Amino acid sequence: MSDSHEYDYIIVGAGSAGCVLANRLSEDPAVSVLLLEAGPEDKSIWMKIPAGAARVIGPGPTNWAYFTEPEKHLRNRKIYWPRGRTLGGSSSINGMVYLRGHPEDYNEWARLGNPGWAWVDVMPYFKMSEDQQHGASAMHGTGGPLAVSDPAIDDEGGRLFIQSAVNAGLPFRKDLNDGIQEGVGRAQVTVRKGRRSSTSEAFLHPVRHRKNLHVVVEALVGRILLEGNRAVGISYTKGGQTLEAKSRREVILSGGVINSPQLLMLSGIGPGAHLQERGINVVHDLPGVGANLQDHLYVYYVAECDKSISINHQLTGARMYFQALKYFINRSGYMNIGAVQATAFPRVAKNADRPDVEISFRPMSITISKSGAVALDSFPGINASCSLLRPKARGSIRLASPDPCDKALIYANYLDNDDDLSVMREGMRWIRKVFETKPMANLIKKEVAPGSSIRTDAQWEGYIRDSAQTVYHPVGTCAMGTDSMSVVDPQLKVHGIQGLRVVDASVMPRVTSCNTNAPTIMIGEKGAAMILAAHKAR
């Protein structure tokens, strides 16, 4: 670390956006960058192997392993929220699915008072990151740090699911990122030659040799240092010591949807009444901090099937060691499998003008315990999940105490309205229809969950409230905009505070209609470009 403890830019959080920022901002050798990460190095072998996602998604040293507060509309269950706590953040523990969403997602951001964030504006930044397996095109880029490739496993179950979905009326789509979205196909993944392409692998590790880039792990930032209404640095703890670092230009929060608003509030920036309740001096009353929380909720559909289309038995017992051997010899076999093998975007609500659910098929079936542990079922099974893409429910993040070591309180407020519940119910009915359509129907032995007895709206509602979980896509708690509840402006600068930005998924005013990792990387790219342009202009 530099003896001066002073840097041009300080980035808090080495996640999906933070690693992108560290790479792009340190390209100029005259600029010094400090990147701070609360967790350890991303050394676990399970973070490198695609199938290892099932291991690292559970509680452990590289996972914050959050839980929501009891969710009123989900039978008062606490919902497990994994979030990456290591270099690469959640991109080091996620399912590696690469999806951009629908153009209207971003056009809506622009309509909400964020010029420069429409689909046509963000597309160059998606392409900038991308090293697309199929080569460059109008929609895709090559030569970028992030590997984007087809799934390595072309499984029989996935092929049958796609064919049954087509037979049920959904068009086949070779590229789910082409701006049309509606259809069914194989979603691409962030994997290069059998190895996870997290943002730490893609953006950070290749440039850690830069003398102007300083990376500090196991460093918990507890406070933003302020002089009047200007951010001038941060205070953090490492190895039992409290240290400070000063910024000559900007402090950039990339801690994610929970940690970024938490740090703002710990620093006296947030809803004034709440901060006073927690004994924190109010520096700037910014009511939107921690508000506007949105997440994709999902429900599983599980079927027992013919052994030929399930890989449960391939990843348990002695066969698992055989698969591991194949992987380490030539990167082949089922250790290459990611979280999803086929993806569908249908419209299920009567008035939907674009896809409103995401259906994810997997040639396996799993049980997730209340603690978040993942285990394969003993029977040959497959599953598909229904994710609600544009929830109306809004939740919040709040402080438990003024202590940065205490985890923030999460109130997701899932299913607080009938519309969200109705869309999920119809999405589950759509999955059942596909599983009952040939050729998939020929290999299904029985419906395990929810069970064939679930038929009425009330029965579906009961099943959904009993079993729904998060898809791990929370956003929105530092929303960009110009209204009274926005936290950052369209340049991602925190309202009312100079020298401070937020660049991560928390700035999304509305959740994207897809997995959120690719959009968050795009935000990192665009955020870095805006920061560099602002300094050049000065």
Describe the structure.
- The protein is of the alpha+beta class and 538 residues long.
- It has a domain at 1-44 and 78-132 and 198-295 and 475-538: FAD/NAD(P)-binding domain, CATH 3.50.50.60.
- The chain contains twelve helices and 28 strands.
- Strands 1, 2, 12, 13, 14, 15 and 28 form a seven-stranded mixed β-sheet that branches. Strands 8, 18, 19, 20, 23, 26 and 27 form a seven-stranded antiparallel β-sheet that branches. The protein has a two-stranded antiparallel sheet with strand order 3-4.
- A hairpin with a 2-residue loop joins strand 13 (220-227) and strand 14.
- It is globular and about 70 Å long.
Rg calc: 22 Å
Regarding CATH, which class of the domain at 1-44 and 78-132 and 198-295 and 475-538? Alpha Beta
In DSSP terms, counting alpha (H) and pi (I) runs of 4 or more, how many helices? 12
Strand content: 15-25%
Quote the average pLDDT. 96
**Major pleated sheet:** 7 strands, mixed
Strand-pairing-aware structural class: alpha+beta
Measured as a percent range, the helix fraction is 10-25%
Task: Report the end-to-end length measured between terminal Cα atoms.
Answer: 28 Å
At the fourth level of CATH, the homologous superfamily of the domain at 1-44 and 78-132 and 198-295 and 475-538 is FAD/NAD(P)-binding domain
- Overall geometry comes to globular
Strands, total number: 28
Write the CATH architecture name of the domain at 1-44 and 78-132 and 198-295 and 475-538: 3-Layer(bba) Sandwich
